[in-house]
Amino acid sequence: MMCGVDEDQEPDRESNVAATDAAFTSLLEDSAEELYEQAPCGYLSTLMDGTIAKINTTLLEWLGLERSAVVGRMCFSDLLTVGGKLYHETHFAPMLQMKGEISGIALDIKAAGKQRMPVLVTSKVKTSDDGEPLLIRTTVFDARDRRSYERELLRGRQAAEEARREAEEARRQAEADRERLQEALAVLQQSLLPAALPAIPGLEAGSYYHTASPDMLGGDFYDLFPLDAGRWAFFLGDVCGKGPQAAAVTSLTRYTLRATAMHDPDPVNVLTTLNTVLHERYSNGNPRYCTAIFGTLHAASDRVEVRLASGGHPSALIQRANGTADYLPTPGGMLIGVLPHVQFTAAHTELRPGDTLLLYTDGLTEARIGPDRALYGEDALRAFTTNQPPAGPQALITALTGLLTGFGDGLDDDTALLALGVPAPLSTPLPAPAE
Predict the structure, then answer these.
(1) How far is 132 from 45, CA to CA, in rounded Å?
(2) What is the DSSP-derived secondary structure letter of residue 336?
């Protein structure tokens, strides 16, 4: 008994199997001749000189020829296209003669209606008992679907290659466009900064500008310029935002600060005028504002007097000749351009030989450091400056440039630095004056 079959059902099952076997047997009662003639592929046999001795109906129907016009009258190569005939004579027949068998060769036959029909041909030499070649048996398979698939595959490959070339060309074009954009932005960025700081008798100055992204215009700015005999003006600031609009605000801010200082260099009055200009210009629903420090320098016999005011900007840091460093507070300074009426606080100090005044934008103190990405901060900047020898503005700018480089990708904002100081004499530094 079969596993899982009930004993009472066993006779019925055996009768069903017998009936099925009988049906298949009746379907498969084809004669060998019928199997040859109606095979799903072409068959032919040729003499050793290529003359066709036998061919099946399937191949004749593909060719659109009568058997009487083919058998004994045509050679196998006569069924091929010109290119196929040439390949048969130069490669196919010699290889078959040497090896006695060749398979899967792609050729084209001249099908009915003068159409080219792709086929795959396999041939084998039949030999006598003593090894003498008697005839060649050949099987011909319809390869039209295969050829269509190959053409589609080739078209797909060509389309993919063309898409790859177009993508590569688009990438090269995008890189070239980006390089041109970066060059234009670099030129525009430089136009918003002084080409070089002027030389001031009895005073040393240094500056540095770090660009966080070559693809974006920053809004940081600074300048140093003469007012009259013995007096100079300086400013440093940061416009909110980036891009062309921020650049336009930067340009307007720099022009306003310089023009206003020529008429009234008082730091509070200069920042007040700048606030009025920005608020009137950008109070139409698209507010723009900035932070800035503006100040004046007046050289005396053994010192430089500094007067400055701040509008929402980080406090200036003073490195003294005695090795200390501390901030010059300007409390109450408001953002410039937000409100129509603002208050600014003035501050005053003196720079003695060996002292350096440092102005910076918040890209420096807001850099991210360490695994927890904490802010660098003002305390760390003061400690860093204290640890630097009081060797003047250029030396301090060089040290800070190295600090900025060390931040790596933690420095994600533009940063401007401006340092002003009195060269130190060779004698022992003087103690820091009281603020």
Answers:
(1) 16
(2) B
Spatial contact of 366 and 378, defined as CB atoms under 8 Å apart: no
Dihedral pair phi/psi, residue 261, rounded to 5°: -60, -30
Distances (CA, A) of 370 to 135, 250, 273, 387, 414: 86, 33, 42, 20, 20
User: Is 394 exposed, middle or buried (CB count within 10 Å of its CB: 0-12, 13-18, 19+)?
Assistant: middle
Q: How far apart are CA 114 and CA 81, in angstroms?
A: 10
Question: Which of 275, 262, 265 minimizes the C-alpha distance to 343?
Answer: 275
d(CA 232, CA 295) in angstroms, rounded, equals 9
Cross-strand pairs, 121: 105, 140
Beta bridge partners of 298: 231, 305
- Give pLDDT tens digits for 179-194: 776 666 565 666 678 8
Q: Which of these ranges, 88-92, 239-243, 269-273, 339-343, has the smallest mean pLDDT?
A: 239-243
329: its two tokens: 């507070």
Q: How far is CA 110 from CA 54, 77, 121, 134, in A?
A: 18, 10, 14, 27
Reading the block at residue 244, the tokens are: 């062309």
What pLDDT does 2 receive? 46
Q: Per residue in 217-276, pLDDT tens?
A: 778 899 999 998 889 999 999 998 887 788 888 889 999 999 999 999 999 999 999 999
- Judge whether residue 5 has pLDDT over 50: no
Outline where 220-354 has alpha helix (H): 244-263, 267-281
pTM: 0.61
Residue 284 DSSP class: S
Check: CB of residue 54 under 8 Å from CB of residue 71: yes
pLDDT surpassing 70 at residue 434: no
Task: Give the N- to C-terminal CA distance of the chain in Å, as an integer.
Answer: 113
Contacts of 92 (CB under 8 A, 6+ apart): 102, 105, 107, 121, 123
Q: For strands 290-299 and 231-239, give the pairing.
A: antiparallel
| CA 408/CA 60 separation, integer angstroms | 79
Cβ atoms of residues 350 and 305 within 8 Å: yes
In order of 12, 141, 271, 274, 290, the CA distances from 261 in angstroms are 115, 95, 10, 11, 18
